Queue: 2 jobs
Job 1
Amino acid sequence: MARLELSSVGKAFGSVRCADNLSLAVESGEIVAVFGPSGSGKTVLLRMIAGMFEPDEGDILVGGQSIVGAPPERRGIGMAFQNFALFPHMSARDNIASGLRAKGAGGDIAAKVASISSLLKIGHVLDHRPRELSNGQKQRTALARALIGNPEVLLLDDPLRNVDAKLRYEMRLELPSLLRRGSASVLYVTQDYREAMAIADRIAVLIEGRLVQVARPEEIYAKPASVAVARLFGDPSINLAEVTPVAEHGALFADIAGTRVRLDTGDREPIDLGACWVGVRPDDLVISHAPGDDAIPARVVAVTPMHEKAVLLLRFSDGAEWLAALPSTTTVADADDNVFVRFAAEASLLFDRATGVRIGLPHRRQAA
Amino acid sequence: MEHSSLAGRIFRGVALTLVLVFFMFPIVWIFLMSFQSNEQILRIPPSILFEPTLSNYQALISGQLRTTAGNIDIPFMRNLMNSFVLSSAAVLLALLLGVPAAYAFARFKFKLGETIAFTLLSFRFAPPLLVLLPLSLYYQQLGLSDTYFGIVWVYQLIALPLILWIVRGYFEDISPDIEHAYRLAGHSWREAFTRIAVPLAGPGIAAAGLLSFIFCWNNFVFALILASADKQPVTVGALAFVTASGIQYGQIAAAIVLSVTPTLLLALYAQRYLVEGLSLGAVKG
């Protein structure tokens, strides 16, 4: 099996740069999620690998061999499309078998189709045309078609986008083992950070055609490379405040809505910083009725129950609004209550206000 | 609708009958005329009661037109055959050229693409007579006048734009991802075109083919100028019924019945595709 490698890949459509110096390696048997907001160039990236467009710059290698310029049918790539892209005039069976037939696989086609369709639980609908299938069955048929030839590289373009929430949840559990079956290098495009975190070994965050961060899911959540990444991961999204941190008595402090709070410095020397964003995830906020020097007074504007969580909209004295997510079993506050907000210094993330880059990243330290 | 009153239903019935009579009357009248002699047709007042005769059809099939001034040879059956050959060949050629071209226009953006597509369409709004004079001169120079190939070629002015624009709309409706998926499964672009794009655009191609067949069949002026009697289709051949001793209404009616029948049957058989193809072409084109 082969590793997929992108090296400084660039692509522009007119003045829009959809891919800017993208370098990424996916090992055989690894699942890398490409995650980013819509329009960030995820689909263009997949399509360059699949051979629907050629990159303007850079190279794409599979098993060390460049595939740039090769026609799609010779690239050894399996792909599942967001809109399924099933062949409407063929039965599900013929859809799945089309790749094997093209390669002239011979007599074992029927056996292979039977085995993959039982794995994906679509054995009973193989004789149906795509329009007679439910969305879930269509999606499974499309997956079976992509998986059946044991391709070296597997590309999935937001395959769970068009299926209902229940099925999406089920598939999120099933997919990792399905995708690892053939030890292909898998690129999985999604717009849902939860899906990316559930399925992938690593996540590549793509924003405006650039790879902003490539790391393991928990690392991206804990140490996002920039404000933009921090905002994309987490629901409700991260709270931000504009601060100018100062170093005092060996610690770093910042002023949030008139309250001095201590910030995280990790194992580094605290120094005075310029204009920054401080970010705290809603889950890390602690709400209480007890005042204190380190607690930010706030007024609860609204309480929104969200199944396992309750989300509180808080307004500080300076008008800033933050969200706190609390387990819904603990009802600490109601709307219009005056409360105090605390967070542990370790929960705070600092970003440079001009560049958005997280302060404290080893190779960006001088940016502070 | 099912709760409509008796009066409403009667009114609808009457209205439908009126419309039907309005549209069908000419065809029915010509059908009746084709079984009457010239004298029966021209009597005043006209009557739908007459003794049917097959002499008109006999005359057409045997090629002998009996007039008061004597017998004239008319190559009607040959004209009918010519119509078949010319229209079929023209549509076939236009499909061979137009379907791949429509695919190219639908799938690829290329320099002057829209200009070329529009130029091809503009052939449909140039008055044929304007084109014909220079064309007939060229044809004489090239040795193409009075050849089947020459007429089939000039019929491309009718058939090609029609096929191109209708089929293009159909191709644009097919998600390109379906073809991408087929290619990733290991097929060449040619296979993706013949096994995915063409079958999926099938109804559109059928509709465009039928429509251009009808338009070619009905064309009069191209063959009138560019071909002589033995290559002319029925539309031109019908001129022979205007004779020195008068107009042979009975034979004309029989000729019309014979020449309309093939296209009428074709249109009835394929009406579903025709309506679908026309409206889709109109919306997407």
Job 2
Amino acid sequence: MTSTRTRMVTALAVLGVSLALWLPAAVPCCRAAAQTTDVELAPEIEIHDWINGDGRTTLADFRGEVVLLEFWNSH
Amino acid sequence: MGHLSRLQDKYRAKGFVVIGITGEDRATNLRYMLHNDPAFTYRVALGSAPGYETPEFPWSVLIAPDGSVAWQGSPARMSVKKNLKPLLAQVRKPTAAERDARAAKMLAFANAFLADHFFVRAESAFQALITTYPASEAATTAKARMKSLLVVDGARVEYDAQNAIVKLVGGVEAPNPTSKRVKNPERDAAKLKKLAQQYAESAPRAARLALEWADIYSEVWK
């Protein structure tokens, strides 16, 4: 009986240590994985008129393409 | 600024879009463009973008296909090889739903010009839709609209008058890529004012267009 209990305690302890070793590694892994799907989007632009426009009015309308925003001020 | 047109033209087919953005109004910006980059082919957005910090002008921000900011800085520091090309490698084909949504937006955009009797601009917007998304339902509607573009009373007169102004200016909305730098804006402004008077009764939308361009040409950019 005693030896069975000892074996069980040992098995639980091994399991506990394994979990303790696994968890810290597991948490950053999953957080990092979540970050890749949860992209921080570029701030939207607030536009009232377009020159050479085609009906796409927000950055979301251009998702999937590469956009170069060039800010200028003529003065 | 001519480099922006060249850059977009070179990589457009790979999924590259240039958007100039300025807080100035349309006439001021077109005056500026006529002086600095009369053959520009990229989009200019008139409005604001308060979410961005712009320590200096001009200021470039590259946005990746996933919608995140990938790089920003002075345009002179942007490297096509290091900053742009890796992003172009991430460009993906739009889904069927995205294509349909874009085509629908282009159709609504063209319809708005039609409702405003700006027939030449409507025609070019319908044509852009048909060229970009030929297989879409919106393109079928656009083709039908093109056929019946001038069925409204007086539409033919408007259309011809608008085309006369477009010919003088060099482009439907902005001077086209082949137009030359404006040499004598005062003379063009006078011509446009005369056209506005001529069209005031018969083609009021064309008259408005002529006055808008007369206003742009009446002040020379310094």
